[in-house]
From TrEMBL, chain A:
GO terms for molecular function: 4 iron, 4 sulfur cluster binding; metal ion binding; molybdopterin cofactor binding; nitrate reductase (quinone) activity. Belongs to the prokaryotic molybdopterin-containing oxidoreductase family. This is nitrate reductase (quinone). SUPFAM superfamilies: ADC-like, Formate dehydrogenase/DMSO reductase, domains 1-3. It catalyses: nitrate + a quinol = a quinone + nitrite + H2O. It comes from Haloarcula japonica (strain ATCC 49778 / DSM 6131 / JCM 7785 / NBRC 101032 / NCIMB 13157 / TR-1).
UniProtKB/TrEMBL annotation, chain B:
The keyword Chaperone applies. Keywords: Chaperone. InterPro entries: DMSO/NO3_reduct_chaperone, DMSO_Rdtase_II_chaperone, TorD-like_sf, TorD/DmsD_chaperones. The keyword Chaperone applies. Pfam families: Nitrate_red_del. This is Chaperone protein.
Amino acid sequence: MSRNDLTDDEADSAGISRRDFVRGLGAASLLGATGLSFADDGMDGLEAVDDPIGNYPYRDWEDLYRDEWDWDSVARSTHSVNCTGSCSWNVYVKDGQVWREEQAGDYPTFDESLPDPNPRGCQKGACYTDYVNADQRVLHPLRRTGERGEGQWERISWDEALTEIADHVIDEVQAGRYDAISGFTPIPAMSPVSFASGSRLVNLLGGVSHSFYDWYSDLPPGQPITWGTQTDNAESADWHNSDYIIAWGSNINVTRIPDAKYFLDAGYEGAKRVGVFTDYSQTAIHTDEWLSPHGGSDTALALGMAQTIVDEGLHDEAHLKEQTDMPLLVREDTGKFLRASEVGLAEDADDPEKVFVMVDADGNLRRAPGSLGERDGQHDHSKSIELDFDPQLSVERSVDTDEGSVAVRSVWENLTDELSQYTPAVVHEETGVGENTYQRIAREFAEADAAKIIHGKGVNDWYHNDLGNRAIQLLVTLTGNLGDPGTGLDHYVGQEKIWSFHGWQVLSFPTGNVRGVPTTLWTYFHAGILDNTDPDTAEKIRESIDKGWMPVYPEERDDGNRPDPSTMFVWRGNYFNQAKGNVALEEQLWPKLDLVVDINFRMDSTAMYSDIVLPAASHYEKYDLSETDMHTYVHPFTPAVEPLGEAKTDWEIFRLLAEKIQERAQERGVEPVEDRKFDRTIDLTTIYDDYVRDWETGEEEGLVEDKAAAEFILEHSEETNPEGSDEQITFDDIDEQPQRFLEAGDHWTSDIKDGEAYVPWQDYVHDKNPWPTFTGRQQYYIDHDWYLELGEELPTHKEGPEDTGGDYPLSYNTPHGRWSIHSTWRDSTKMLRLQRGEPVVYLNPEDAEERGIEDGDTVEVYNDLGSVEVQAKIYPSSEPGTVRHFFSWEKFQYPDRDNFNTLVPMYMKPTQLVQYPEDTGEHLHFFPNYWGPTGVNSDVRVDIRPSGGDTE
Amino acid sequence: MATTPTDPMDDIDEDAAARGAVYATLAKAFEYPEESFHSAAADGTLEADLRACLDRTGLNVAVPSLTTDDDYKTLAARYNDIFELGYSEYTDRTDGSLEAEGPPVPLYESKYRPDHSWNDVNLDLSRAYSHYGLEIDQDERDNHDALTYELEFAGYLARREAAVGEDAAIARLDFHDRHLGHAAAGVADRLADEPGTDIYGGFGELLEAFVRADRNDLADRLEDRR
Ligand code: SF4
């Protein structure tokens, strides 16, 4: 046997040099194995970057470790999982691979009196690397070959995938069904470029953009109702400024891990921390006092506390007079506010019918300044609510109107009447909380210098969440705890808005004409709710749609027909898994969709039930921005490594799709289509040019790269590039270190100030601008017809709908868990090892014993809608009567593919379908994520039995 | 590219070269199938030539059936089902154990190394590849412990042994013991339990048998050199 006879680069008779041979080129052929010539490129995954026949002495494996280890690079990134964390991480790279991450820990301190903002992070983020490298990554474009959900796929090329989608989209648009094309992606703040990628294309197509904040039941409807604002809250650092904090249904220690330290630290500074949780939750155990009202009775508890505050005169009268509707007069006969026009006041106002009336200390009727009728729209800071008279809170009298004498009472009178029902006996009866306990807490809260309520999902998922919100809001309003450090009602559930709003908005919706849709209504409408709800709700849904209060797409056509939705793009979210009314959605809505495209880094349930899955870059493989309302910094995602396999960034995927649509449209010679609703033409032959054009500067191809899109957002946002200032935050700046925003744009209710944690509502409380409500004040009285009809003009406690899911003895809820962020990490081995490793329900020992269930048993949770098989965990911290199923396991983690949402029916509250004022809607009008029906789910009833038991 | 040479084995170690060719073939076989792989598998040339290659190795390895009646699309779908599509599934509901990640037969060594972390396995491989001046192609990158990379690397070392120097043989043996042996046995085991594997069942058997035979042969040869 001889070797080394070939010269290194000289080819032998077969045309192969030694170097080529070792590299693997033609090696099979060299052996005469032509049948193996498909393997003639012996190394196409590994590449010889150095000489393949170079001198690499080897004696033993130790030799491989002689080179000093050094990272090739460290990149800054974070996670886009709707966790609200927005924690900056360093990602360590060697040999093109991510090996670990570490909290960056370099948020600049802006207030030395507050705890260090560093580090931020959670245990899920600390193992995101596992996902980057995981073999459940989707690596190639896939097309379904079996039924939806069957898991049968073929790998297709990018070109094939994009061509198929492009042709379908072109057909839809040309047939006028552009409003049958939906794009669902949640939470811009967690990665606005990725959000914008598909939203921009859908916008150019004339398609439909879906809301998410209301759909996830994260929107607290009480805030738009009372404060005219989607939500605004303090950054978490401000908790530390409080003297008294009530964590009300907000399980901070589980769902706000990076921020929890502020809650704990506040205690060291002497703040009292009270927890209001039905269970002895992971946060309750760290509080000074724990109140445990019965599930769904938070409203009664809050109104009871309000009654104590009012009864004992602990309310802040000045605040109520200036900042709220309490002094406004309400007609006794109609229940409507008395309008200035009825009593000859405010004739100079634009619309005296929308100006309201107070009574001054002398008993004279006075116009209430800042009413909508004298403002130019919802937000008008040229007007003031400051009073130059002292209004009376308690008014009960008659007034002369053009219709004669009318009995009126102030809102305050109505409210105190309402509150008087909440006697200690009633509150105890309704809530189970001790009579003295809740009254003492109310007193302490009212007497604290700076008191705050941290409000969470535990309250917001109930049918009457709007009443619950309004009642709890009332506590901070009554005590004047708004607009100052350490005060307020901080509702941290999901992420409603994004700091760098303008840049994100014009990137996502370049045409300015947005077909937004309330996703709860869209989903349930197309899943058949009109035939599956009570007649009154069905009637109100119809009325809301008919009156144009809430839109549903596709629009009804001139001939009275309404096409079905046909096409859905889902990215950055797991819509199919997370949808309430899951059974109806799967059976009724899903079959209507001809094409479902999921863009994903992993095969989640939505991907499983899609037609085409496109592989997306992971969070460590792309450029983007990260923001949250838990803090006031912006920091980036940067690509530590190339996307795994054939994956691409969201921006690149939708850009390539735009390019393919343009190419195919030109080939097919399609004509532009006039938009039915907006004054614009949908021209698919230029859609790529439009996609990559910077519409703000007109620069062609200015937005080809995702980094350019990130820079575009920073450039065009007040928060990062304030008008009239030289200061600007650039992408390079944030790559260097997280940067605190420079200003707050006008979608925030306070300024960002040096040296102070952000606290909302100062525009109104301190600057006396009118609140963006009908009355220009915090509005606890809503004189909309539907509210009057339902007896909800004021916050009031009501029982939830009966028998939701059927007549069963146990209450069912699906809180956020510790070991996942929604469905992300639900399938992570590391996280599964920290828990039971499969879907599990938490049961009170008494409920379990009654049913012969022991810890670890496999049980069925069931109601009229279905049944899911899960493991039982005995949870002594639970109140009896509740089945807690921490969500959100993937469908395929249950044996029958039913999941936690199988037991949740479609239901929604009509009060959230209104426009207010009814004719013009400045106060409440549909706007995605600002106002729309919430996808509530906590009223569900179930029972539970050992698996294999009888079915009834 | 290359045509069949008249007498190629004059210049290189034929046995090691043939093993290199078998590894390269296995690497391709465990990649997503290309049309060329499918046609060679369908018309029997793959099996015949692989047999011929193995005959030139001096290893006694039985070759299972390596032909397929699948059309290309079916073969590709089969590959996806077995190796590629991952989602969580119960493996055993009685004790709640969950195969949380990945397809029925993952093609990553770390999945078969319960006592080693992903990082340990991959870092070790990263060291090995980079010692030899090799890197993962970033255009369509995968993790270092992807079976195809390991097979490509095994092929590279075998060809190095054939054409550059014998010290590669020692590296080959160590690589088998530290990595490829575990991956091959793991993949073969899982494939054996999996229904409907068609040609991949055969490749699983061959992978395990060939890697084991190569390893044992190396161990015998190098017994006194370690
Ligand atoms: S998952 Fe969210 S909370 Fe956890 S570390 Fe990442 S960004 Fe922070």
